[in-house]
Design goal:
CATH architecture of the largest domain: 3-Layer(aba) Sandwich
Order of helices and strands: HEEEHEHEHHEHEEHEEEHEHHHH
Largest sheet: 7 strands, mixed
Number of domains: 2
CATH superfamily of the largest domain: Leucine Dehydrogenase, chain A, domain 1
CATH topology of the largest domain: Rossmann fold
Strand content: 15-25%
Strand order of the largest sheet: 9-8-7-6-10-11-12
Number of strands: 12
Number of helices: 12
Radius of gyration: 21 Å
Structural class: alpha/beta
Distance between the termini: 21 Å
Helix content: 25-40%
Length: 428
């Protein structure tokens, strides 16, 4: 058995970052795995890592190179599943951790996938549309050898969208010689995408938020909600909470923080962001100059829906919310988790809270295979049922074992993954 937190040879100490957080989470759940703990090293070692060079010709004729990744963490329960992000801070450690969290997330909500993730280290804002298309197509052609409808199915993530997925699907299909709509999810409706997919992650955050609030005896109507990130996840969650009667008292994005004790007009804020690219200068709220003040906003529900490692030992003590819903992947460090637990804060972990996206991605994949598509009402009903059942199972484990919801989710998910690993055995 290797030592705890062993750093793989392909990572430097500087890059350990999110992967180190994930390893600590696995160490915390290991004592609860019983006889399956003999397989736990399976969870600490990605099945496959592909690093690729992504060269493109820029519009001015120069050649630019970008570093791309696709990591398949585990495929014991089914094909790899996870998004692709385009961001200037993408690292191997980050993509490894995100792929591992996808393994846990898919098992926690019991969809038949393993975990995978991809990324390119690039600021897409520096690329023209043509350059973005060429980079996407080249990246897809480079990872073509390990993706496929029954092997590994990418999806949108940070700074990627249905257009990126359309280019990826087309590139893969051209190499296969036939249309393969199931190779990615999050596609445009016209190419086999699913109704309800755009709102799915934010809707899932809202659904489990309502379930968790009920467990705490909290009314959603009148509850004060603060949201970090106002994109596809945070923006949708904000809209749904507002429609349910909650007050959105603070929103932080990459530019600034906007607050209003009376509650922000979410529709007006969304229109402002669409027109201006950020919440900055929104007339319907006051702007906070210090980004760190966001964590001390007086609220009942906090939704971190931006990037990982946002809630740390430094700011966890400032948080005044009773309930945290992790819309982002890995937004809370293990040390911060301990502080929040001691404060009596209920944290609904990312692997449950933001699993709505991959759940509807699963619906999309199923619809593509059958060429039979469901209505949006059917999608939302199925999503709500799966999210509620998953949350209820995790809550019950937490109650029975006197552990946090995160540890409970990991117990449920890791047990499912390692049972599959044990039943399949080792080949050869």
């Amino acid at each position: 058995m290797s030592t705890q937190h062993e750093i793989p040879s392909y990572l430097t100490q500087r890059e350990i970052g999110p992967w180190g957080v994930y390893l600590e989470q696995i160490d915390r759940v290991t004592p609860h795995l019983g006889a399956l703990a003999r397989w736990v090293e399976t969870l600490k070692r990605p099945k496959r890592i592909l690093m690729v060079d992504v060269p493109i010709e820029r519009d001015d004729g120069t050649i630019a190179h970008f570093e791309g990744y696709r990591v398949q963490h585990n495929t014991s329960r089914g094909p790899g599943k996870g998004g692709v992000r385009f961001h200037q801070d993408v690292t191997l450690s980050e993509v490894m951790a995100l792929s591992a969290w996808m393994t846990v997330k898919n098992a926690a909500v019991n969809v038949p996938y393993g975990g995978a993730k991809g990324g390119i280290r690039v600021d897409p804002r520096t690329l023209s549309r043509g350059e973005l298309m060429r980079m996407t197509r080249r990246y897809t052609s480079e990872i073509n050898i390990i993706i496929g409808p029954n092997k590994d199915i990418p999806a949108p993530d940070v700074n990627t969208n249905e257009q990126i997925m359309a280019w990826m699907m087309d590139t893969y299909s051209m190499n296969q010689g036939s249309t393969a709509s199931g190779v990615v999810t999050g596609k445009p409706i016209s190419l086999g995408g699913s109704l309800g997919r755009h709102d799915a992650t934010g809707r899932g955050v809202f659904v489990v938020g309502c379930e968790a609030a009920a467990k705490r005896g909290m009314e959603i109507k009148g509850a004060r909600v603060a949201i970090q990130g106002f994109g596809n996840v945070g923006g949708v969650a904000a809209r749904l909470f507002s429609e349910a009667g909650a007050r959105i008292v603070a929103v932080q994005d990459h530019a600034t923080t906007i607050v209003s004790e009376r509650g922000l007009d979410v529709a007006a804020l969304q229109a402002h962001v669409t027109a201006n690219g950020s919440v900055a200068a929104f007339a319907g709220g006051e702007q906070m100059d210090d980004r760190g003040q966001f964590w001390g906003v007086d609220c009942d529900i906090l939704v971190p829906a931006a990037l990982e490692q946002q809630i740390t030992e430094v700011n966890a003590g400032k948080i005044r919310a009773e309930l945290i819903l992790e819309g982002a992947n890995g937004p809370t460090t293990p040390g911060a988790d301990d502080i929040l637990r001691d404060k009596g804060v209920t944290v609904v972990p990312d692997v449950i809270a933001n699993a709505g996206g991959v759940t509807v991605s699963y619906f999309e994949w199923v619809q593509d295979f059958s060429s039979f598509f469901w209505s949006e009402d059917e999608i939302n009903l199925r999503l709500t049922r799966i999210m509620r059942e998953a949350f209820a199972a995790v809550w019950q484990i937490a109650e029975d074992k006197k552990v946090s919801l995160r540890t409970a989710a990991f117990i449920l998910a890791c047990t499912r993954v390692l049972q599959a690993r044990e039943m399949r055995g080792l080949y050869p």
